[in-house]
Amino acid sequence: MGRRVYILLLVGFLVSDIGVSAFAGNSHLIFTINDENPEIKKKKKDSIPIYPDLVYEYKIAELNNLTPMELEYNDRVRRYIDVYTIERREHLAKIIGLAELYFPIFEEMLDKYQLPLELKYLAIVESALDPRAISSSAAVGLWQFKINTSKMFDLEVNSYVDERCDPYKATEAACSYLQYLYRIYNDWQLALAAYNGGPGVVRNAIARSGGKTNFWEIQPYLPDQTNGYVPAFIAVNYVMNYYKDHNIDPVRSDFIHMNVDTLRINKAVSFKRISEIIKVPVETLQFLNPSYKLDYIPKMKESATVILPVGKIRAFLKNEKVLFDETNSINETEEPTVNSGETNGKMKIVHEVTRGEYFHKIAIKYNCTIEDIKIWNSLPTNDLSVGQKLDVWITPQKATMIDEEKNRPKQQRDSTDRFIYYTVQKGDTVWSIANKFNCRSISELKEENNINDENGLTPGAKLKIYLNK
């Protein structure tokens, strides 16, 4: 017999031909779905859920609680949500995959400038995460700078190079500009509108509205594109956090942030030459290095950056002479390295992936490398899922340490131990809280409060903190 699903008050409707029976009872709408049927399961996955306004409003309110930016729901926001989740689902799936390459760059720079991390979603509104995007008004890159604006932030644009397409330099320029705009308006919605239309456009709209400084009140006085900019930004915040609720499966990019790296070079070289020597397709070099317009890295006043798959960095360094001087021969000798996947003298344990874990974190925990884990488990990609079992080979010494940690007796608390309740603030981590209150250990703090994911602290949550005597 199939599982019975009861959805009370907040009801999602599926645009599909799935047979769903619905009836009203006790003022609630009840759905019964026979989801053990394989055909029904397939149709459910292929369906396009559409939810009542109350669902969107509730979920956006949840997101609003976690950011200093004002996120609110209305008909304009709903229209953009429908665009992304219904009309452009396939496009959104690709954007979600590209986010794994670009969002870590954005987040690091936003953190450096002490800006809200949600601003990373702005690049989706601007360019759909296409670093070579060009608008009808000749704005270019992930953050869509016009050439005159780019000069304000020292972005180089010449016949060979367009740093508006450089994911690192353009992101820093965008952060600097957003910081400046927020200083002007002290309001993120107005700052976003100014990012799109320019400070003059927003200033004029405020004047025409009689001095109002609320985005929604000056909307009628803004150009059409700027008028829809903030609603689109709010919608992107929603879809990037709740795309799974709309049955959207990400289309993974060939590269994510952790499997690429950067090098600095001081000489000119073509993509064709790099491709020939270190065996990286020109198309890959173009994708990873979008700021070089003619597939050629010129000799710059300062050293130039080249982005490569992490596995090709050593080959590039070994062959620098031949890369820049064709009279030299290719160095094909291998440097002595630790064999990836080596198991001699080690013992196998099984690690279950928990929420928030990723390859680097697991590799650090077990004193191995990402490549080791992938070889031991025959993993062709960098995808991990919660609950996934991984074979990991560790030294006897590491095994002993793990056993000791598991079996270490817990210090018992008694009624005389003093404690307080602490409210988690934005930016808090388990480590910072433990350090702030001089806790005996991070492990104890996590155990006392049933914290499984160190990165999953929610602002406003209450933690029980024991004070040292």
CATH uppermost class of the largest domain: Mainly Alpha
Question: Which consecutive residue ranges, at least 5 long each, have pLDDT under 50?
Answer: 1-36, 333-338
Q: How many β strands by DSSP?
A: 12
Number of domains: 5
Task: Give the radius of gyration.
Answer: 26 Å
* Average pLDDT reading: 83
**Continuous helix count:** 21
Span between termini: 58 Å
How does the overall form come out from the CA principal axes? globular
CATH structural architecture of the largest domain: Orthogonal Bundle
The main sheet orders its strands as: 1-4
Task: Explain how this protein is built.
By secondary structure, the chain is α+β, with helices and mostly antiparallel strands. Helix content is 42%, strand content 12%. It has helices at 38-46, 53-64, 75-87, 89-112, 122-127, 147-152, 167-185, 188-197, 199-208, 215-218, 224-227, 229-242, 271-278, 282-288, 313-318, 320-324, 359-365, 370-376, 396-407, 430-436, 442-448; strands at 13-15, 21-25, 28-32, 48-50, 260-265, 269-270, 296-297, 304-309, 347-352, 389-394, 419-423, 462-466. Strands 1-4 form a two-stranded antiparallel ribbon. The chain has a two-stranded antiparallel sheet with strand order 2-3. The relative contact order is 0.07. The model is unreliable at 1-36 and 333-338 (pLDDT under 50).
